[in-house]
Amino acid sequence: MQTLEQVQTVLDALKDAGTPAPEIIRQLAPLCLGWPYVFGAWGEQCTPGNRRKRVRDDHPTILSACPALNGSACSACKWGAGVRMFDCRGFTRWLLQQAGLDIAGSGATSQWDTAANWTQRGEIAQMPDVVCVLFRRKAGRMEHTGMHLGSGRVIHCSRNVEEGALKGGNWTHYAIPRGLYDEREIPVSPVRRTLRKGAQGADVKTLQTFLIAWGCEPGTPDGIYGKQTDAALRAFQRAQGLTVDGVCGPATWTALTQPVETYTIRIEGATYQQYRRILDICPLAEATKEVTDHD
C-alpha cells in the first residue's frame, strides 16, 4: 500500500509533465488502493484526531478500527501511518481536485443533482468509454459513487479504496465532470431502450448483431425479438455472470458493447464429440475442425 507521500511524489511528477487531467486520475486512483473508508472524510490524512472529528453513532467503526483511539498506536493499525481517508463521494471529489477540478454537493445525490458539475450524464448503457464518475441509484437516490477509469475498470471507496466491477448492476448512472474534457473529445453513445421478448425495431436488430459478434446465435437479424433471440440473450447473460432474465437493460447493453476478446485454442486429436462437449460447456465458443494430411 502506498503512503500519501509516495502518491504525492507521483502526482507532482504528473503535473510537472503537463499530464492531462483524465490521465492524472487514471494513474492516481490505483495508487490509493487499500486506503481506509471513514464516513464523512474528504481525503484528509488518517490520524486519530481526524478520525475523532468524524465520529458518528451510526458509524462505530470510525472508532473501533483505530488502534490509537483504543489505547494503542498508529503503528498497530493495518493501514499504518501516512495514508488518506475517504468515504465514497469524498474519494471521487478528491481525485478530481488533484486533477485541478471540483464538484459541488455534500453527498452522492446532491453531487449528481447539481447540473453545473457535469458536461454529460445519463444511464450506464449510454456511457462512453472515458474517465468519469459513476453512481448507483436505489430507491430514488444515489447511494454510492466511484470512478470509471476506462475499459470497464472501476475504483471506489467502500470498505476501503478498492477495485469494483462495472457489470452486474453495480452502477446505474455516469457523469462526466465539466472541464475534464473538451466537449469535442467525448464520444456520444447512443441511447438504448430496454428490450424484451416481443420488441421490434432497429434497436432489436442492433441487439441481434451484437449477439452474433459474441457467438450467440439469435437467427437472422430481422429486428424481431422472438424465441431464438431470447435464448441467445439468456446464453450471453449466463456466460457474462449477469441476471439471466432475457431482458436487455443497461447492464446487459454495457456488457454487449464491450470489445469482444477472442482466443484460439487448438486441441490435437480432438474428436467431433469432444468439440461438441466444449460448445455445450461454453456457449460463446466456436469450434472449427482443421483438415490435415492425417485426416
Could you characterize the architecture of this molecule?
- Strands 3-8-4-5-6-7 form a six-stranded antiparallel beta sheet. A two-stranded antiparallel sheet has the order 1-2.
- It has helices at 4-16, 21-31, 48-53, 61-64, 88-98, 108-113, 202-213, 227-240, 250-256, 272-281; strands at residues 42-45, 84-86, 118-123, 132-138, 141-150, 153-157, 161-165, 173-177.
- The chain has 295 residues and is an alpha+beta fold.
- The chain starts with a helix and ends in a 14-residue tail after the last helix.
- It has two domains: 4-185, endopeptidase fold (from Nostoc punctiforme), CATH 3.90.1720; 202-256, PGBD-like superfamily/PGBD (Muramoyl-pentapeptide Carboxypeptidase, domain 1, Orthogonal Bundle).
- Helix content is 32%, strand content 15%.
- A hairpin with a 3-residue loop joins strand 6 and strand 7.
- Mean pLDDT is 86; it is low at 291-295.
- It is elongated, with a radius of gyration of 24 Å.
